[in-house]
Amino acid sequence: MNICVFLSAADLDERYTRPAREFAELLGKGGHTLVWGGSESGLMKVVADGVQEAGGRLVGVSVDFLAAKARENADEMVIAGDLAERKALLLAKSDAVVIMVGGTGTLDEATEILELKKHGKTTKPVVLLNTAGFYDGLKQQFHRMEQEGFLPVPLTDLVFFAEDGVAALAYLEESLGIR
Asked: pTM value?
């Protein structure tokens, strides 16, 4: 399974890096491929290292203005011309999406995939990995959107909220008929 992971390239503390590395090891041991932003820094590096060390493949999609930070030993690396092309390539190369902790770029990627799902432009399973309660506020906002009629489909059709990597991977495998 090719799993696109949207996440931060920032250096983060142990409460985020430890669960991210554990999830990455699950992906690698399961023989899955990480499709990610291709960066060799921060949390992106932690996850790529974990997947690769556990036997998984790496498919990176960087963007021209960040190409200098791209991982050199990825199994495949594509350099997109801009962020819109990068997002399209990330989604095209993946079977499923996991949203990990991140900043505005991660939020942009997350809302785009959910918007595509809302309009039936993709059926890929999407997991929001709520490490250390990072997305509690966003989860609450999504529930409010659903309750007040802003979502034309049930929230559960758009995204699965997982509290840990084991639950996230189990959901993806079940959704894609791997389990």
From this structure: 0.95
Amino acid at 165: G
Longest CA pairwise span in the chain (Å): 47
Q: Are 125 and 175 spatial neighbours (Cβ–Cβ below 8 Å)?
A: yes
- Which tokens go with 39? 């960066």
Does the pLDDT at position 169 exceed 80? yes
* CA–centroid distance for 68 within its chain: 22
C-alpha distance across the termini of the chain, in Å: 12
Closest by Cα among 67, 127, 57, 140 to 97: 127
- Residue owning tokens 């990480």: 34
* Residue 178 confidence class, pLDDT cut points 50, 70, 90: confident
